[in-house]
């Protein structure tokens, strides 16, 4: 039986909760029970959706005992909890992960077969919850997976967006966004708890008064509010019985509608307040690494943070808990600046509601927070105008001013007369308008600040927050990101997993450094053959998926060269495009014979923020180039370009295991870490990449011989910038670059319409803010090295195996251990 191994707590008067037996018979019985009594249909009349929902609820039954028991243990143990505060969780499909965690895959397969059902169709029925944009949201999902697997108490707090990241389609090669109604067919993985609703206030003003001890105090008189309804999700550990909780908040109006107005016939007016309130959790902002200074976004941030703090303090801690000891019980990890309003919120709770002195409250608060920064782009650091903050959260703005005043006084004591320094450390910026720098507030209000890769943490200290890192050397640290091997290797790459387990046992799934034991097999010809066969089988699986999903046909035997990530100028999809066009140009101009080229299939996956014009133009150009190349007989079976729409976690799980080459080509000093880079390496792709983010650490671990490095280093980028970067000089002096750009600009890919490619091309020639042209030649040279190694199948496979064997460091279990040791003291 699956179930608690601990003695049952006295808390449950009704006796132990038991899951059905882990046998095909009991699984079938539980499934039919869910279908008949839960879904209300007969098997013979059921739709695929009915069957999917019933299957999901069946698997849920096997997790339930562990979930309830974990909850009891968490309450009784008094252990410190990690409160992970994140505006995004990019979870991916839940069914497969739950089957994996419970070790029910084979039983469920067989049980469905006995019911005459193809389980693959049911897996395909699930719409993944896309409650995140990209790396940051996916990182949060990996972290909660690891904490559950390590049995660390964690509550993931976030927002239950009714619509997640938009669904991308292409029309005439241009991106069109469609709302992602992931809840429309039912959501069997969430548990609503309307009885645990929380009220959240907004607006109004503050006033001062004198309390009964004669102290001058401030209070907030808000003028509107909404309700937060928690929806709980299970976060199962890997086969360890632990199930942690993700608590996502949904906004609801305090009053559904105005009956008086409704009765008078103005129906729109009657529901206006409801619509307004419920808009707060309606949709995820599709911005990635660039904040939207929108009022609704600030409302979202405060909404989920206020609900979460209230939930922990009022509902999760024991009654009458002494809040002076709060830091022993919670550490709130701030996933970038999105939840940073939690710092003044905790101050408000302690000072205004619980009657603490300011100093004592501040001392507690700072111990309860830690801040992770995920960017180096100055334009990506969140700043809120004081006008907006004061209008929406007047008391919080007041608290921020006081935090700032006291902090600057402290700095002034250390650096008397250094007004320049003091101004540069102020939370409040005065130009172009008075505003609040959320990263500064986060740094001042946290016990620790970390970056997400070695290079990033170094640059964070030196370039983004230099005054702060001098002031508090000990506060700054690094935790290099990681990814969960459960989803991204064990689940996504079953063939490779079986091969690995066959050689070194299954311990690697929860102890990824054990992959080191594979190293000797890199020199074993039989193993290499098996490894290469796995890659080929994964390619064939991918091609079937792309055929069914997008109608894309790809040649069977070509190097699979993959660039998947959000579309961003700094990530340089345009540099990848220049490489493709350059190779194509070499062939059609006769400089290279098609039969001498290494056949390559290029795959892109990328969503552009709907308001990011240059990114959308780049998508258009990639699609245009793809259509032209794929239709050109001169390069048939030598060059193919695929750009399946709507890249998401589900597609990533098919794409990454099939890839030969991983493209990680951001301008040095711009990508904080990257996590796709880790997923590819662990699935046996070789990386072509710049010295940026976690690429640096990947290269150090896998070795220079097993990584294709190119491009300027971060100091070289800085130097070139200082000298005055002129992209046209590269265009003029490099023949291949000129031929490539001329072909792109000349309308060859846009049916003669030169204007259609002009924006991307002109941007490269005149601005090129991310120096694609400066790195172009180095990139081509590195691609030539890729071809040379790929021609030697043994050498390539050997490198691929070594990439797997040496990338165990990038498990998010290791990241979590680092957070526990360096940041959480738990
Ligand atoms: I700030 N990141 C993201 O996905 N969204 C954001 O709003 C911000 C950062 C990403 C970084 O760009 C990646 O380099 C990094 O690997 C990832 O966050 C996780 O740390």
UniProtKB/TrEMBL annotation:
Enzyme class at the top of the EC tree: transferase
Keyword annotations: Carbohydrate metabolism, Glycogen metabolism, Glycosyltransferase, Phosphoprotein, Pyridoxal phosphate, Transferase
E.C. code: 2.4.1.1
Gene3D superfamilies assigned: Glycogen Phosphorylase B
InterPro entries documented for this protein: Glycg_phsphrylas, Glyco_trans_35, Pyridoxal_P_attach_site
Modified residues (N6-(pyridoxal phosphate)lysine): 679
Cofactor: pyridoxal 5'-phosphate
GO terms for MF: glycogen phosphorylase activity; pyridoxal phosphate binding
Reaction(s) the record says it catalyses: [(1->4)-alpha-D-glucosyl](n) + phosphate = [(1->4)-alpha-D-glucosyl](n-1) + alpha-D-glucose 1-phosphate
GO cellular component terms attached to this protein's record: cytoplasm
PROSITE patterns listed in its UniProt record: PHOSPHORYLASE
Any one Gene Ontology BP term: glycogen catabolic process
Record family assignment: Belongs to the glycogen phosphorylase family.
NCBIfam families cross-referenced by the UniProt entry: P_ylase
Task of the protein: Phosphorylase is an important allosteric enzyme in carbohydrate metabolism. Enzymes from different sources differ in their regulatory mechanisms and in their natural substrates. However, all known phosphorylases share catalytic and structural properties. Allosteric enzyme that catalyzes the rate-limiting step in glycogen catabolism, the phosphorolytic cleavage of glycogen to produce glucose-1-phosphate, and plays a central role in maintaining cellular and organismal glucose homeostasis.
Identification of the protein by name: Alpha-1,4 glucan phosphorylase
Lineage of producing organism: Bacteria, Bacillati, Actinomycetota, Actinomycetes, Micrococcales
């Amino acid at each position: 039986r699956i179930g608690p191994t601990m003695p049952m707590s006295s808390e449950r008067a009704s006796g132990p909760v038991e899951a059905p037996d882990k046998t095909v018979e009991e699984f079938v019985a539980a499934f039919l029970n869910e279908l008949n009594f839960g879904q209300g249909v007969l098997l013979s009349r059921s739709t695929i959706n009915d069957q999917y929902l019933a299957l999901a609820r069946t698997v849920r039954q096997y997790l339930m005992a562990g979930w309830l028991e974990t909850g009891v243990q968490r309450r009784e143990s008094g252990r410190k909890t990690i409160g992970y505060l994140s505006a995004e969780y990019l979870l991916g499909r839940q069914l497969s992960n739950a089957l994996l965690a419970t070790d029910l895959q084979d039983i469920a397969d067989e049980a469905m077969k006995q019911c005459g059902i193809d389980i693959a169709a049911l897996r395909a029925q699930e719409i993944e919850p896309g409650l995140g944009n990209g790396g940051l949201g996916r990182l949060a999902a990996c972290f909660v997976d690891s904490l559950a697997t390590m049995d660390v108490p964690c509550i993931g707090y976030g927002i239950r967006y009714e619509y997640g990241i938009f669904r991308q389609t292409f029309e005439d090669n241009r991106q069109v966004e469609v709302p992602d109604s992931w809840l429309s067919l039912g959501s069997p993985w969430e548990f609503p708890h309307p009885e645990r609703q929380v009220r959240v206030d907004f607006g109004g003003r503050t006033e001062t008064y004198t309390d009964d001890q004669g102290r001058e105090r401030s209070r907030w008189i808000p003028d509107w509010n909404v309700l937060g309804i928690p929806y709980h999700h299970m976060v199962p550990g890997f086969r360890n019985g632990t199930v942690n909780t993700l608590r996502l908040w949904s906004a609801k109006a305090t009053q559904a509608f105005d009956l008086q107005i409704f009765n008078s016939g103005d129906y729109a007016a009657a529901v206006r307040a409801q619509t307004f309130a419920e808009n707060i959790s309606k949709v995820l902002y599709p911005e990635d690494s660039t904040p939207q200074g929108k009022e609704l976004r600030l409302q979202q941030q405060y909404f989920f943070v206020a609900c979460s703090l209230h939930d922990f303090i009022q509902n999760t801690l024991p009654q009458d808990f002494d809040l002076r000891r709060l830091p022993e019980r919670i550490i709130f990890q701030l996933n970038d600046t999105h939840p940073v309003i939690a710092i003044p919120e905790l101050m408000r709770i302690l000072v205004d509601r619980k009657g603490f002195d300011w100093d004592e409250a501040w001392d507690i608060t700072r111990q309860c927070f830690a801040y992770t920064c995920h960017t180096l782009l100055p334009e990506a650091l969140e700043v809120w105008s004081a006008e907006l903050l004061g209008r929406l959260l007047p008391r919080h703005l007041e608290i921020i001013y006081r935090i700032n005043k006291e902090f600057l006084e402290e700095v002034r004591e250390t650096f008397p007369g250094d007004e320049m320094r003091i101004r540069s450390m102020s939370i409040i910026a005065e130009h172009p308008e008075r505003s609040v720098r959320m990263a500064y507030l986060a740094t001042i209000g946290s016990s620790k600040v970390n970056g997400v890769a070695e290079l990033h943490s170094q640059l964070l200290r030196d370039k983004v927050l230099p005054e702060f890192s001098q002031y508090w050397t000990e506060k700054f640290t690094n935790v290099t990101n990681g990814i969960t091997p459960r989803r991204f290797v064990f689940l996504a790459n079953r063939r490779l997993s079986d091969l690995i387990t066959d050689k070194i046992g299954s311990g690697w799934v929860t102890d990824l450094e054990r992959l080191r034991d594979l190293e000797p097999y890199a020199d074993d010809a039989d193993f290499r053959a098996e490894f290469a066969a796995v890659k080929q089988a994964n390619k064939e699986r991918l091609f079937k998926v792309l055929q069914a999903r997008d109608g894309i046909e790809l040649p069977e035997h070509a190097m699979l060269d993959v660039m998947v990530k959000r579309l961003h100028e700094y990530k340089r999809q345009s540099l990848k495009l220049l490489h493709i066009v350059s190779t194509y140009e070499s062939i059609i101009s006769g400089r290279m014979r098609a039969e001498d080229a290494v056949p390559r299939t290029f795959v892109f996956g990328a969503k552009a923020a709907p308001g990011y014009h240059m990114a959308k133009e780049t998508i258009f150009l990639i699609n245009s180039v793809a259509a032209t190349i794929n239709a050109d007989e001169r390069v048939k079976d030598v060059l193919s370009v695929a750009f399946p729409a709507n890249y998401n976690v589900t597609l990533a799980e098919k794409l990454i295991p099939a890839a030969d080459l991983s493209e990680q080509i951001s301008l040095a000093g711009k990508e904080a870490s990257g996590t796709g880079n880790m997923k590819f390496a662990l699935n046996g792709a070789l990386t072509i990449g710049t010295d940026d983010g976690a690429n640096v650490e990947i290269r150090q671990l896998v070795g220079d011989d097993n990584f294709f490095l190119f491009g300027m280093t971060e100091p070289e980028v800085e130097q070139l910038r200082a000298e005055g970067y002129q992209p046209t000089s590269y265009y003029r002096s490099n023949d291949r670059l000129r031929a490539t750009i001329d072909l792109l600009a000349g309308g060859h890919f846009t049916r003669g319409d030169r204007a259609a490619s002009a924006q991307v091309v002109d941007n490269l020639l005149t601005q090129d803010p991310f120096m694609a042209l400066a790195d172009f030649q180095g990139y081509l040279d590195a691609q030539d090295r890729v071809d040379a190694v790929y021609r030697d199948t043994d050498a390539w496979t050997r490198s691929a195996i070594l990439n797997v064997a040496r990338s165990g460091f990038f498990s998010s279990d290791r990241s979590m251990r680092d957070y526990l040791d360096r940041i959480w003291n738990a």
